[in-house]
Amino acid sequence: MARRLPPLNALRVFEAAARVESFSAAADELCVTHGAVSRQVAQLEAWLGLKLFERRGRRVVLTVSGRAYLAEISAAFDRIALATNEQLRTTRQQIVRVNAPTTFALRWLLPQLSNFQFTNPAIEVRLTTSDEPIEKLGDTCDVAIRGSEQKSAGYQVSEFLSEVRLPVCSPKVFESHPIRAVADLAQHTLLHTATYPGLWTEWLAASGHAGLVPRHSQQLDHFYLTLQAAIDGLGIAMGPTALVALDVEEGRLVFPFDGPALPAWRYCSYVRDARRDDPAIAVFLTWLRELGQRFSRHA
């Protein structure tokens, strides 16, 4: 059976005017004119066939009928507001702000985030990148990720991923000049990163070939460029196993050697003590730890 309801906008205006017993105050609350309030109240009174207000000079006072109607209408509006707030509470998008180093974000975190968003549609991860010390971030992020342990007073710290470094190259490079032994690297281009200048020297020394001279050397200024150069077949890079894991799984890169493995980063998450009990952050950290277990590798 269809509900018999008066004009809903007129109800809203009546409730505001009756609650404060003033057309002017109701107009201010609803951001309309005094005349608009008067017209809506008159429309509701005509629809009901009742007088809801008595005019006493410049004041309005609720009639007996108006006061009884207000009690029921206010209760109904309260129930509507309560139901609305509950729905907003359960469906409102939760935001987790994450700050991570650029190469880590590009090579590891971003490729995985679609899976997180699919399984946690109510949580939005907002990702920014930097290498700033943790204490400088303040409240600009909820979760910070760094590849080395830092001063952490006031933070909950948790290691979730460890990796090692091994030579890595594209299948095309590996096949064009087969690499069966470390000495075969003399026929290849070795890729270097300006911020990690000694990686190849350290690895060659560990492999017993400290004096090896490659055919060419190529230096790039950012590590993510070095890894992309390896994918594109420019040469062989020293690759952090976690950051190239998906490329290896999907056939864009290969490891010519199983060792020796150089120690690399141990990634930790940092959450300010004030946010450690946030449910959305807890969900993200659990996902991070479970994912890290899949990709971790130790020297």
TrEMBL record:
<dbReference type="Pfam" id="PF00126">
    <property type="entry name" value="HTH_1"/>
</dbReference>
<comment type="similarity">
    <text>Belongs to the LysR transcriptional regulatory family.</text>
</comment>
<dbReference type="InterPro" id="IPR000847">
    <property type="entry name" value="LysR_HTH_N"/>
</dbReference>
<dbReference type="Pfam" id="PF03466">
    <property type="entry name" value="LysR_substrate"/>
</dbReference>
<dbReference type="InterPro" id="IPR058163">
    <property type="entry name" value="LysR-type_TF_proteobact-type"/>
</dbReference>
<dbReference type="InterPro" id="IPR036388">
    <property type="entry name" value="WH-like_DNA-bd_sf"/>
</dbReference>
<keyword id="KW-0238">DNA-binding</keyword>
<dbReference type="InterPro" id="IPR005119">
    <property type="entry name" value="LysR_subst-bd"/>
</dbReference>
<keyword id="KW-0804">Transcription</keyword>
<feature type="domain" description="HTH lysR-type">
    <location>
        <begin position="6"/>
        <end position="63"/>
    </location>
</feature>
<dbReference type="InterPro" id="IPR036390">
    <property type="entry name" value="WH_DNA-bd_sf"/>
</dbReference>
<protein>
    <submittedName>
        <fullName>Transcriptional regulator GcvA</fullName>
    </submittedName>
</protein>
<keyword id="KW-0805">Transcription regulation</keyword>
